[in-house]
Amino acid sequence: MTSVTEFKMATVAPALRDTFSRPRGVEARARRLGWGLLAPALTLLLLMTVLPTIYLVYFAFRHENLLGSGSHFVGFLNFERVLTDPTVWWDSLSTVQFVVIAVALELGLGLLLALMLSKRLPETNLVTALFILPLGVAPVVSALVFRVLLDPAYGWVDFYLQSWGLIDQPIDFFGDPVWAWVAVIGLDVWQWTPFCALILLAGLQGVPVEPKEAAMLDGASNLRLFWHIVLPLLRPFLAIALVLRSIEAFKTFASIFVLTGGGPGTSTEVINLDLYRVALQDFDIGAASALGICFLLVLAVVMQQLLNVLGRNTDILED
Amino acid sequence: MTIEGNAKSIGRRAAVKTGAAFLGGAVTAGALASMRVARADSAKPSRLTMLYATSEADSDAIKGALPDFKSAFGIDLTVDTMPYSALQQKAFAELASGSSYYDIMIVDTPWMPALTDKILPITDMILDPSVSDTTQLDLSDFIPKVFFDTAVYKKGQSYLHWPGQQVMEAAAIKKGGFEIYGLPIQANVATLAYRADMFSDATEQKAFKAKTGKSLSAPITWDDFTAVAEFFTRPRKRLWGTTMMAGAGDWATDDFKTLLASFGGDGHLVNDAFEPVFDSPQGVQALSYYVDLIAKKRVTPPGTTSASWDTAATAFGSGLTAMSINYHSETLNPMVKGSIAYAMVPKRLQYGPHFGTWMLSVNSFSKNKEWAYRAIEWFTSKPVQVKALATQLHPTRRSVYQVATQDADLSRRFANFYDVLGKSLEVGVGRPRLTNYADVDRAIWVAVNNAARRAEMPDVALKKAAMQVKTALARAGYKPA
C-alpha cells in the first residue's frame, strides 16, 4: 500500500504542481506587481491624508497647549464645546446658504454662458479666453480688488451708480448684511462661473446633431429643443459641475476672509472662518480638531449624496 | 554556595563599580556638555536671524540699521519680515515646534501672555555685566508705560500687570517676582491727525467762529471734536469731519477702548481679576457717543461701519476727511494739496489713547542667546532709534523723543508728530493680558460694529459682549477672583 501510494504521489504530484501552482504563482506575481504599482500612490495617500486624519482625531480628544504645559486627554469635551456653541450652528447654516446660492447661480449663469459660447463664431475663442480670466486670479487678489471696487467712499461701483443717477446714497456693501452677502456671492460667481461654463461647453459640443435635426423637422421650438434634447444630454456635465463646485464652495475661505472678514457683525461668518479663528488665532488645537471632524463628517454625507447624483446622471455616458 | 555567593558578591561589586563609573562618566560628560553649551552660547556666531514685522513695526528702520550692526558686531543679521496676518502664526509655529532658527523674534503685546514659556526672560542677562552694556541699555530711558506694558510679565501668571511703582530697575523687577521678556522697539498709539491747512484757513476760522463762537483749533475734548467734525462735514463737497473705524475687526475694539478710557472707564476692557469692565455706564456712554457720531450726526464718510486702520488712513490721505484717529503714520496723497498736524486723541474725563508696542525678544531655543540679547540691546538703544527716526520709527525712549522734537528737519517732514506721539504714549492704555485675547477682542468689535450699524442698542450690544467674554474667559480657565 505504502509503495503504491508513494508511487502515485511521485507521479501525480508533479503533474498537480504543473496544473495548479504555475497559475497561482502567476497570480501572486501579478498581485505583487499590482501592489507595487499602487504602493507610491498608497504611501502618499497614507502620509498626506490618512495619518493627518488620525492625528486630527487624536487631537480632538485632547486639550493641547502648544506653547506651554498642561496638555491632557479631555474626552468629548471639545466636541461638547463645538456642538453647544450657537455660533457654530449659525455659521454652518451660513455656509450652506452660501454654497447653495453661489453654486446655483454659477450653474445657471455658466449654462447661459456655455450656450452663448457654443455658437461657432470667429469671436468665440477670444471671448472664451476672456471669460476664463477670472479663474486665473488668486481668490485673495480678486477679493482685494472687489473690496476697493465696492468701497462706498471711493469705489468705482458706487461712484458710477451715483453718476448714472441709479442711487442717491452710496451703498455700504460691507456695512449691511444683505449687501455683504451680495458682495461675497457676487465675487464667487464672478470667479467660478467660467469654470462651470467650460464644463458645460464641453458637454454642449458633445451633443449629437441628429436628434436635434429630427426634432426640428418635427417642428420643435428652440425652447422645447433645449428642454427635451439638449438639457437631458447635458445632465452628466451639470452633475460633474455641481459636484466639483460644491466641494470647492464648501472650502471657500480666502475670499470671504479678505472681503468682509465675517462682518458686518458676524453676518458673513462661515465655518471655515471659525476653524481659522479657533485654530490659528486662539491656537485651541483640540477644539479646532473637533470642529474639523464634525465638518468633515457632515461634508462626507453631503458629498456622498452628490456623488450619488453624479453616479445616476453619468449612466447616460456609459449607455 | 560559597563560591556562588562570592561570585554573586563580586558581580554585585562589579556592577556597583560599573554603575558608579557610568554615573560619574555621565555626570562628567553632562558637565562638559553644559560647559560646551555655555561656551558655544557665548561664542560669537557669524550670523543671527531675526523674525520681524513689515510696516506695522517699521521694518525699514531695522533694515536700514543692518550695515551699522555688521560694523559694530561683525555679525551678519538676516531679517525675515512678514505682514501681520501671517506673522503671529509664523512666530507661534516656530516657538511651538522648539525651532532655534530665529534667534531674535518680534513680539506684539497681545501675544505675550501665551508666550512666557517660550520667550527667554532677559532679566539675568541685563543684570550680568559680562553680557549687558549698561550705558547702552539704560532701562530708565524707556517710557515707563511702554516698558511695563510690553516687556514685564510674571512667569506662570502672565495675566498680571506689574503692580509696583514704574521704576525701571531689573533687580527690583526680579525681586518682585516678575521678569523682563524683551526690549520695546516700536510704540504705536492712537493719535489725532488733522488738516493743518484747513484749520489755519482764515475763511474756515471765521465761519467756525460764527457758527460756534469758538476759535477753530485742534480739539481737546470730545465736545470740541464733535463741533469741529460737524463743521467740516460737507457731503456735497465730498468732505466729512473725521474717520472712525467701526468695521468688523480689532480696530473697532481699539476705537472703543480709547473712548472708554477717556470717558472714565477701564480701557483695559477686562481687569486682572478676569471681570469684563467695559459693560459699565462709562462704556455705554462712550459707545453711544461713538454711534451718534457715525449714525446720527453722520460726520464720518460712507463705509465707516466697515472701515479699518487702512481704509481710515486712505480716506484721510485722499482728502475725504478733516481729521482722523489712527495708529498709522498719516500722509496725504500728492493730489491733495494740504498739510497735516497732530494732536492727542480728545478726552472727556481723562486721556486714554489705545496703545500697543512691539518688542524684540530672544527665542528661548536660540543657540546664540547672549548674542541675540546683545543685538536687541543694540537695536533698541538710543543712537539706533535716533537714526531710525528718518523712516518714522515710533521710538520707545524718552530721550529719542527729545531729539526728535528738537530736530528741524524732522519737524518739517513730520510736523509735530513726535511731540504728540511721545505725550500720548505717556498716558496710553494697553490691552488686557489674556491668552485668548482674540476671543475678547472679537466679542467687543462685533458689539461695536453692531451698535454702529444700529443693529443693536449700545447697552444691549455691550451686555451681550460681556456675556460672551465671560464664557470665553471661563473656557480658557480664567476664574474671576
Short description:
Chain A is mainly alpha-helical and 319 residues long. Chain A has helices spanning 2-60, 77-83, 86-117, 124-132, 139-149, 156-163, 177-205, 209-217, 222-250, 254-259, 271-281, 285-318, and strands at 62-63, 72-73.
| N-to-C SSE string of chain A, H for helix and E for strand | HEEHHHHHHHHHHH
How many DSSP H or I helices of chain B? 20
Individual helix count of chain A: 12
Total individual domains of chain A: 2
From the helix content, strand content and strand pairing of chain A, which structural class follows? mainly alpha
Low-confidence stretches of chain A: none
Total domain modules of chain B? 2
Query: Which CATH top level class of the largest domain in chain A fits?
Result: Mainly Alpha
Class by SSE composition of chain B: alpha/beta
How would you describe what is shown here?
The complex is a heterodimer of chains A (319) and B (481). Chain A has 319 residues and is mostly helical. Chain A has 2 domains: 2-48; 77-318, MetI-like fold (Orthogonal Bundle), CATH 1.10.3720.10. Chain A is 76% helix and 1% strand. Chain A has helices at residues 2-60, 77-83, 86-117, 124-132, 139-149, 156-163, 177-205, 209-217, 222-250, 254-259, 271-281, 285-318, and strands spanning 62-63, 72-73. In chain A, strands 1-2 form a two-stranded antiparallel sheet. In chain A, helix 1 crosses helix 12. In chain B, strand 1, helix 2 (59-73) and strand 2 form a beta-alpha-beta unit. Helices cover 49% and strands 12% of the residues of chain B. Chain B folds into 2 domains: 47-188 and 355-426, D-Maltodextrin-Binding Protein, domain 2 (3-Layer(aba) Sandwich), CATH 3.40.190.10; 191-353 and 434-475, D-Maltodextrin-Binding Protein, domain 2 (3-Layer(aba) Sandwich). The model of chain B is unreliable at 1-40 (pLDDT under 50). In chain B, strands 1, 2, 3, 4, 7 and 12 form a 6-stranded mixed beta sheet that branches. At the A-B interface, helix 11 of A face helix 3, helix 13 and helix 19 of B.
